[in-house]
Structures are given as C-alpha cells and as structure tokens.
Amino acid sequence: MSVDAATVRRIAHLARIAVQDDEIEHLRGELNAMLAFVEQLSEVDVSGVEPMTSVTPMVMKQRDDVVTDGGIPDLVVANAPAREDHFFLVPKVVE
Length: 95
What we know:
By secondary structure, this protein is mainly alpha-helical. It is 34% helix and 4% strand. The chain is built from three helices and two strands. 1% of the residues are buried. It comes from Rhodoplanes serenus. This is Aspartyl/glutamyl-tRNA(Asn/Gln) amidotransferase subunit C. InterPro entries: Asp/Glu-ADT_sf_sub_c, GatC.
C-alpha cells in the first residue's frame, strides 16, 4: 500500500496537524515506511505462539467474589460529619 500526497493531507487534517506543502513529501515517505513495516510484520508465522499479556509468564491471583461490610462499620463512618447507625447522612438535593 502506498500513500499519496492527498492522503497525507487528509491524515493531517483528521489529526488536526498543520502541515506545510514542503513537508508533505517527507511525511509521505515516513508513512510509506511505517506501512511497509506493518506489511512485513504480517508475514511472520505466529501460529504456534500463544497470546500473552506480559513478557513474563504470570498467573492472575483470583479470590472469591464475596460481598461483605468489611467487618468494621463503626470505623467506616467514624469521620463522617453526619451519620445515623452505620449510614452516612447527606443533605437532600432533590425536592
């Protein structure tokens, strides 16, 4: 795939980048080089490679999804400016 000057101008417009006419040819070369590299990557055989999220093998730590109150409700509301039992009191904002 090759990028022409009109495509460079369109990309610059979409990216909201001001590009002078004398810069178009240089940017065209850079974009073509990037696209050539991407095409080169598509030729690599990755059929035996497992997908990975990191370069080091890791196992995600898992725990049971259990809902609790934290076991410390008094400490949770201790610094609240207004409270009742274990609930925060807030001013009414809707009539």
